[in-house]
Specification:
Largest sheet: 6 strands, mixed
CATH topology of one domain: Nucleotidyltransferase, domain 5
Mean pLDDT: 86
Distance between the termini: 32 Å
Radius of gyration: 27 Å
Shape: globular
Strand content: 15-25%
Length: 641
């Protein structure tokens, strides 16, 4: 163990963790002796054998009512020779059912389920369902663009071959995965079309790009780089862990020609940055290739939409967290996954072999479809996981030029917090995970058509709205925040995440009856941990600067999730600190807006370099009471400073 770490504190926390897990195990052992596995959520018996606890038949469902009082071991009432053998078989059957029906139960945007005949590929199935799957190699398996997730029916497919060796279990190349036995198969393309936030609060920028025209010649600085081809274009790109947002710009007028966005296709390498760092160690270059090919598809689509030539695209400004940015530029990201969690560019800057953590490279060398004279840029990182996207977002809202106390929150798979006083500016990254963005939660979704985005408890049920007013298929992040707040407000859930129905033994709460959409205790646990990460970042930095959240002068919420979240609901469950709500400003995709400003005004690139040097990075886990703060943060209740 390295110097500077309090060994006794570590042992105290380890002992506390041991006690917590011991209590969980003890609770599970008690529950398994009082709650029969054949007793469903309606307290009806589903067993196909006799039991002395079976009561009269339920008139609606035709099943016996379970009359077990929960005080005695239910197995003693089973009229079977060997209760343990029956229980073991039930466990095996349950696991098989999960494998078979989980994907059918879980709604996914862009996913489809269909009956497949032997000989067809997953690409053929997608074609028949009119579902787009990317490919640029003629379906030969060489481009690695047609990655899909197999949701069900994997047993009907031929085993993966060498061309698919880079993929983890559950993912296949659509052109290579062939059906060998007829059956029902569920598939979800990775490059789906969720709602990607491209809107943002726009700042006034007088165009002063580094590329400009004089007569019939195109200059970069003092150098002639090309002849005039009718346009000078640039593209701003925000590469997020979950989604990618783009904006095509006219460098001469500063105008936006069109915007776009897509789901980050690197998800086959994991849903969070640490998983992707680990994946890249075993399959170097695959994640880089996936995002570059997706960006090329996007560039071609945007140019076609704007009726312009990609050969007039001279500037590409890429922002993202440290891992996402470095993967785009093809850098080794292993150092980001190891203490002290710094990008290779940070290590090189500290060693004096690099002037800063900003990046610049030929776009063609990067593999991007642009002018042969185009350059790809990235602004500098702040530190560790707090990346170039946050630096760009701070420039977008003039964070460094405002007076008073300020808070900047970019909420996503990784939540970043920057807090400033007139004397000091600190930043931290909070690894929230994907629970509020469609991962880990059974009916969780990214923002897409049919996702429940707002919700209110009314009577014995819920009133809700969905994106595009479509039929509900799941719940996105803002809807989950509303749901948790409403469950707590109506006493259907305790601050500890326990559902109060059935004497506290309820395992799930129905949200929508048809189609069945529920929230389970496990879902609530994942959401509690994701919320706790955001809580810790705000709490520890506010405490460090001795700030009362109610007194903060300016609060900026950035990102797609923050753009639609109910502020009061988020405060009530401890997702946000108790800021004064009329001082909170939603600024949309601040990273994309910052990239737009940087590409249009070359002078701002010097400003962002100075800003980054002023920010002090804080590792949250170094706080003496971090474990205690995190444990408290897992409860659904308002933050108390």
């Amino acid at each position: 163990m390295s110097e500077g770490i309090d060994r006794q504190a570590v042992e105290r926390r380890r002992a506390r963790l041991t006690r917590i897990f011991a209590e969980i195990v003890e609770h599970a052992q008690v529950q398994c002796l009082s709650r029969c596995p054949y007793r469903d959520r309606r307290d009806l018996c589903t067993a196909r054998f006799g039991c002395r606890n079976q009561g009269p038949l339920d008139s609606i469902h035709g099943l016996p009512i379970c009359q077990c009082d929960g005080q005695l071991d239910y197995r003693g009432a089973w009229e079977v020779a060997d209760p343990e053998e029956v229980l073991a078989q039930w466990r095996a059957d349950s696991q098989q059912k999960v494998v078979e029906i989980e994907s059918e139960k879980r709604a996914r945007p862009g996913a489809f389920h269909c009956d497949a005949e032997a000989g067809a590929t997953l690409f053929d199935l997608a074609d028949n369902q009119n579902v787009r799957v990317d490919s640029s190699c003629g379906r030969t398996g060489s481009c690695h663009e047609c990655v899909v997730e197999v949701l069900s029916g994997a047993e009907f497919l031929r085993d993966a071959g060498d061309a698919e060796g880079f993929l983890q279990d559950g993912f296949r190349l659509a052109c290579q995965a062939q059906v060998i036995t007829a059956g029902r198969i569920g598939v979800a393309p990775l490059r789906r079309a969720p709602r990607v936030l491209v809107e943002h609060v726009r700042g006034d920028v007088a165009p002063r790009p580094s590329v400009f025209r004089r007569g019939d010649e195109v200059f970069r600085g003092d150098e002639v780089i090309d002849k005039w081809r009718g346009r000078l274009l640039g593209i701003a790109v925000d590469v997020g862990t979950t989604t990618v947002a783009t904006e095509l710009l006219d460098l001469e007028t500063g105008g936006t020609l069109c915007r776009g966005g897509f789901e980050n296709p690197q998800r086959f390498g994991g849903s969070d940055v640490i998983s992707r760092v680990s994946y890249d160690a075993n399959h170097p270059g695959e994640l880089h290739g996936a995002i570059v090919k997706a960006l090329n598809n996007e560039i071609q689509g945007l140019c076609q939409q704007a009726d312009v030539s990609r050969h007039t695209l001279y500037e590409v400004m890429l922002v993202g967290n440290s891992t996402m940015r470095d993967l785009v530029f093809g850098l080794d990201v292993q150092t980001i996954g190891q203490r002290p969690y710094k990008s290779l560019t940070e290590h090189e800057t500290a060693a004096g072999s690099r002037g800063g953590t900003g990046l610049e490279i030929s776009a063609r060398r990067l593999g991007l479809l642009a002018s042969s004279y185009a350059r790809a840029f990235s602004p500098p990182l702040i530190a560790s996981h707090v990346g170039a996207d946050i630096a760009a977002g701070l420039v977008a809202c003039d964070f460094d030029r405002r007076t008073g106390t300020r808070v900047f929150l970019d909420i996503g798979t990784n939540t970043e917090v920057v807090i400033a006083t007139p004397e000091r500016m600190v930043a931290a990254s909070c690894p929230a995970g994907p629970a509020f963005e469609g991962g880990l939660v059974e009916f969780g979704l990214p923002a897409c058509d049919g996702a429940i985005d707002s919700l209110k408890a009314v009577g014995n049920g819920f009133q809700y709205t969905t994106l595009a007013d479509a039929e509900p298929v799941g719940i996105c992040g803002s809807g989950l925040v509303d749901l948790l707040a409403e469950l707590k407000r109506t006493a259907q859930m305790t601050p500890l995440g326990v559902f109060t129905a059935k004497g506290g033994r309820a395992r799930e709460i129905p949200v929508v009856d048809d189609p069945a959409i529920t929230l389970s205790r496990m879902d609530a646990s994942h959401l509690a941990q994701a919320k706790a990460a955001s809580f810790c970042g705000q709490f520890i930095l506010l405490r460090m600067l001795e700030m009362d959240p109610g007194d903060v002068d300016h609060i900026f919420l950035a990102g797609g999730f923050a753009d639609s979240i109910d502020i009061d609901a988020a405060i009530s469950i401890g997702f946000l600190a108790p800021y004064t709500t009329n001082r909170v400003r939603r600024i949309g995709n601040a990273a994309l807006e910052g990239a737009r400003q940087l590409i249009l005004d070359a002078d701002r690139q010097e400003r962002i370099a100075r800003l980054v040097e002023e920010i002090e990075h804080v590792e949250l886990e170094t706080a003496d009471d971090f474990f205690e703060v995190f444990t408290e943060a897992c409860q659904f209740k308002p933050m108390r400073m």
